[in-house]
Amino acid sequence: LAKTTQPISMDSYEGQEVNITCSHNNIATNDYITWYQQFPSQGPRFIIQGYKTKVTNEVASLFIPADRKSSTLSLPRVSLSDTAVYYCLVGRRINSGGGADGLTFGKGTHLIIQP
Amino acid sequence: SAVISQKPSRDICQRGTSLTIQCQVDSQVTMMFWYRQQPGQSLTLIATANQGSEATYESGFVIDKFPISRPNLTFSTLTVSNMSPEDSSIYLCSVGGHGTEAFFGQGTRLTVV
Questions:
Q1: Which of B30, B101, B107 is closest, CB to CB, to A46?
Q2: CB-side exposure of B93: number of CA atoms within 13 Å?
Q3: Interatomic CA distance for residues B83 and A39, integer angstroms
Q4: Contact by Cβ (8 Å): B108, A41
Q5: Strand partners, A9
Q6: Whole-angstrom Cα distance, residue B112 to residue B88?
Q7: What is the spatial distance between Cα A104 and Cα B109, in angstroms, rounded to a whole number?
Q8: Is A80 touching B (CB cutoff 8 A)?
Q9: B-chain residues within 8 Å CB-CB of A40?
Q10: Which residues of A touch B73 (CB under 8 A)?
Q11: Pick from B4, B45, B106: which is nearest to A103 by CB?
């Protein structure tokens, strides 16, 4: 599985847009990029998944350039409750069939939102 | 989606003892996964538990230390055996992963004294 590299930590303020970039230089042709969010004392939860260009859902947007060697998770108008660790992973597409494989987590980005 | 319940949520144990962590899922799943999250660290996959077969362990984890049971399609246990302070971590049960959306339990915070 492709290794991912993210900033260890980021700070921002309420109401700002936050962009977290992840590098995955060795991403395979069939790999998708997936982001998970982990609050303290909870397990990670899925945020978004994408393959190329832009994906948007009710929580975030994911921007993936043409070479797919990096991706950027964008959180619009963050609040204090967005303080969490954000993990970028690469692997098979959700609902690709063939069951599930265990996840390989990188170090993640600890995002701290201040008032 | 899947709802995963873990018991206990936390425990403080004496070194040399064992603790069994239970994981209950609200739906039938073929594969369940166990992770460890050491203090301030990311998650590390311990093993994959398939119903009706032996668990598959990742490098650095062995069955004698982390025996796993998977008696049916909704339940699994992980035992942390002969504990030492280095085993103090959060242990998380999960269903899904690459190929499906992953869902995690709240975790079991273990402190070994």
A1: B101
A2: 31
A3: 27
A4: no
A5: A110
A6: 5
A7: 21
A8: no
A9: none
A10: none
A11: B45
Helix (H) or strand (E) holding A33: strand A32-38
DSSP-based three-state secondary structure for B85: helix
Q: How far apart are CA A115 and CA A16, in angstroms?
A: 11
Nearest-angstrom CA–CA distance, B107 and A85: 16
- Side chain identity, residue A42: Q
Residue among A46, A96, A106 whose CB faces B102 most closely: A46
> What is the Cα–Cα distance from B35 to B42, expressed in whole angstroms?
10
Yes or no: say if B3 and B92 are a contact pair by the CB < 8 Å rule.
Answer: no
The partner residues of A37 in beta bridges, in order of sequence, read A45, A86
Nearest 5°: CA angle at B80, between B77 and B86? 145
**CB contact burial B48-79 (16+ within 10 A = b; e otherwise):** bbbbeeebebbeebeeebbbbebeebbebbbe
A4 contacts in chain B (CB < 8 Å): none
pLDDT digits (tens), chain A, 115 positions: 668 999 999 999 999 999 999 999 999 999 999 999 999 989 999 999 999 999 999 999 999 999 999 999 999 999 999 999 999 999 888 877 767 788 899 999 999 999 9
Nearest neighbour of B105 by CB, restricted to A36, A43, A94: A43
Query: Is A94 within 8 Å of B101 when comparing Cβ atoms?
Result: yes
B43, A103: Cβ pair inside 8 Å?
yes
Q: Considering only CB atoms, which chain A residues are within 8 Å of B31?
A: 99-100
